């Protein structure tokens, strides 16, 4: 059985910043209807308020082997710890003004539903199995065993416009803490929502 929760990050190769996300801050989220694990279809462009969207390669499943050489791919391992970390920090993110929290991968909805139920996620996972959002935003990807997977990144958007991008993200289970620290530093005291002009 593959242990998906306990990972020694010091034994894994850290991803390098290849510039694959440099173009994202300031971009508008596209209008697409993407299936989510709560049974809805999510249009990123229509999301008002503050949105946190984290992209990840793929969530593994117990009793099913990960792709060959998975741990040797920089940034591949750690999707389950990342999802659990966002689960555990979801209430704190909401308290900081986050109105929408989503995970995104190119896995089909049925694989995502299994993960969302097993991990008791209080937020939906969004499927981009047809690579529509990936193509619209030119998200950084990797190919593993013939499948196109998202590289791990976190987007913060205000009223449908990306105001900050975290990339690369490592270790994955620190991703929500990165978001929280940024929000605490860049939140406008009046609106409670980061100013779109503040990107560092």
UniProtKB/TrEMBL annotation:
Keyword entries, A-Z: Antioxidant, Disulfide bond, Oxidoreductase, Peroxidase, Redox-active center
Region (Disordered) location: 1-23
CDD domains: PRX_BCP (cd03017)
Pfam families reported in the protein's UniProt record: Redoxin
Sequence ranges assigned to domain Thioredoxin in this UniProt record: 23-188
InterPro entries: Peroxiredoxin_BCP/PrxQ (IPR050924), Redoxin (IPR013740), Thioredoxin-like_sf (IPR036249), Thioredoxin_domain (IPR013766)
PANTHER family in the record: BCPB PROTEIN, THIOREDOXIN-DEPENDENT PEROXIDE REDUCTASE
Record protein name field: Peroxiredoxin
Organism: Rhodovibrio sodomensis
